[in-house]
Write a structure and sequence with these properties.
Blueprint: E1 4-7, H1 9-13, H2 22-33, E2 37-41, E3 59-62, E4 67-70, E5 73-77, H3 82-94, E6 98-103, E7 106-109, E8 123-125, E9 137-141, H4 148-151, E10 159-163, E11 168-173, H5 178-188, E12 196-200, H6 206-211, E13 214-218, H7 223-228, E14 231-233, H8 240-250
Parallel strand pairs: 1-2, 1-12, 2-3, 7-8, 12-13, 13-14
Antiparallel strand pairs: 3-4, 4-5, 6-7, 6-9, 9-11, 10-11
Length: 255
């Protein structure tokens, strides 16, 4: 009994060029026509809307689980207060790290964010003396994975850190995980976690693949994710998510 599908975006549902194929869109629509909910969960914030049409989905989880939505309605939020993230980012700045906090869609950073990611223009270079509010996520640019050892001793107890495959340290509220965000969406639809299929490729997808009913890793996923998955599908550039759903869900009558 499968009642919901959740997928990561980058390197999973999206091709490497950040496009989504017509074939994949058609499969998503067929899945939803069967009465199966289809949502996405991503580390992205507002930039997700530039890549996918939210109307294609029944719900979505942004910012690694800091916010979850159903019908564009916020149902779950776990953010980081300024009194926690400002001293922390200032200390990292003093240690010559490039850092940023995403607050209401604006990247408050100690570097020019668009020199790293050309598509991000909503940023402000700051020393954090003029920043207020709560951050959805924090991130630190890492040159060497061993630099994590310089960050974790001063990481506030309310937060956790994940290192992505492209050496970006993502720092979130401890309750802000993709799994928790998706679980909140599932509860809105009265769907048990055992009736959910999850697709992913990176370390921040691991909990979803382990704790939901079925976990499917992309062929292009990191080895750790492929090792813990129930299945491995084709690559993101070969529409792996859509192919797996068509062959294993739609072909046999869905739920």
């Amino acid at each position: 009994m499968i009642k919901m599908v959740v997928t990561d975006l980058d390197e999973t549902l999206l091709r490497t060029d950040k496009s989504i194929s017509k074939y994949t869109v058609d499969v998503i629509n067929k899945v939803r026509q069967r009465g199966i909910k289809f949502i996405f969960a991503t580390a992205r914030g507002g930039s997700a809307k530039t890549l996918v049409d939210y109307e294609l989905f029944d719900g979505y989880v942004l910012l690694n689980g800091a916010k979850a939505f159903v019908d564009n309605r916020l149902i779950y939020e776990r953010t980081i207060s300024a009194d926690i993230f400002i001293p922390f980012l200032r200390e990292l700045s003093h240690r010559n790290f490039m850092v940023a906090a995403e607050v209401e869609g604006i990247h408050y950073a100690n570097f020019k964010v668009n020199e790293k990611w050309s598509y991000i223009n909503n940023f402000m270079v700051t020393d954090y003396s003029d920043v207020s509010g709560s951050a959805d996520k924090l991130y630190v640019l890492i040159d060497d994975p061993n630099q994590i050892d310089l960050i974790t001793p001063i990481l506030p107890k309310e937060l956790y850190l994940n290192l992505t495959r492209d050496n970006l340290a993502m720092i979130m509220h401890k309750a802000a995980t993709k799994f928790n965000g998706v679980l909140a969406v599932a509860e809105e639809f009265n769907i048990p976690k055992g009736e959910i299929i999850a697709f992913g490729d990176d370390i921040n997808d691991k909990e979803m693949l382990l704790k939901f009913g079925l976990g499917v890793a992309m062929s292009n996923a990191i080895d750790e994710i492929k090792m813990i998955a129930d299945y491995v599908c084709d690559t993101n550039d070969n529409d792996g998510v859509a192919k797996w759903l068509e062959e294993n869900l739609l072909r046999y009558g869905g739920n």
